[in-house]
């Protein structure tokens, strides 16, 4: 038996992989098997080729036309392990050739989704809950926090929880930081794997703008002046009409 040195293959959940067997393509194969080693003796057949009989492959695998490469689709954590490619050439008196490969499938949490809710009095925040949620990562990890601003460790506390596992053997996690706002504005940062999200909390709400009193006064004065002007114009027209009528009457009597 000839065993080749093993390769280390690093992939992420959901990715596809192509595992190559170092076959001499100028020679005809008797068989070629891709198998996963579950212990020193047992093997699980994934895919392969045999010159004289059909084989039952795993549903998420496919062989290339030359039967030297196995494609595996939609990797899961459970696909991690040691794989063996064993093959034999036709009419070859040499023993079976073998190549070992170690596949490590990992996962990274999504960028944290950060939200916050604050209790306040007269627009001044008293306490804020900042929540970070991240999805589809490896079990056993937690979200970490950092805070910037006029804040001491006794003014914040963190609670973590693991949410329902997703359908891909991964977990979703959530973490909430409760912040006392007595020191003013605080910048909260949450981290998981290589991702970070941040938000600013505990800032007083801007007071409502004062009504533009001068503008209102000017508008009011303008309206009043306009009304007075119209009234004076009407009075002038009425008086002029009366004078005209009086002059006409006097002229007739004469």
Automatic annotation (TrEMBL):
<dbReference type="InterPro" id="IPR013783">
    <property type="entry name" value="Ig-like_fold"/>
</dbReference>
<keyword id="KW-0675">Receptor</keyword>
<dbReference type="GO" id="GO:0006955">
    <property type="term" value="P:immune response"/>
</dbReference>
<dbReference type="GO" id="GO:0071222">
    <property type="term" value="P:cellular response to lipopolysaccharide"/>
</dbReference>
<dbReference type="GO" id="GO:0031295">
    <property type="term" value="P:T cell costimulation"/>
</dbReference>
<keyword id="KW-0393">Immunoglobulin domain</keyword>
<keyword id="KW-0325">Glycoprotein</keyword>
<keyword id="KW-1003">Cell membrane</keyword>
<dbReference type="GO" id="GO:0007166">
    <property type="term" value="P:cell surface receptor signaling pathway"/>
</dbReference>
<dbReference type="InterPro" id="IPR051713">
    <property type="entry name" value="T-cell_Activation_Regulation"/>
</dbReference>
<dbReference type="InterPro" id="IPR036179">
    <property type="entry name" value="Ig-like_dom_sf"/>
</dbReference>
<feature type="transmembrane region" description="Helical">
    <location>
        <begin position="214"/>
        <end position="239"/>
    </location>
</feature>
<keyword id="KW-0812">Transmembrane</keyword>
<protein>
    <submittedName>
        <fullName>Uncharacterized LOC107091935</fullName>
    </submittedName>
</protein>
<keyword id="KW-0472">Membrane</keyword>
<dbReference type="GO" id="GO:0042130">
    <property type="term" value="P:negative regulation of T cell proliferation"/>
</dbReference>
<keyword id="KW-1133">Transmembrane helix</keyword>
<dbReference type="GO" id="GO:0042102">
    <property type="term" value="P:positive regulation of T cell proliferation"/>
</dbReference>
<dbReference type="GO" id="GO:0009897">
    <property type="term" value="C:external side of plasma membrane"/>
</dbReference>
<keyword id="KW-1015">Disulfide bond</keyword>
<keyword id="KW-0732">Signal</keyword>
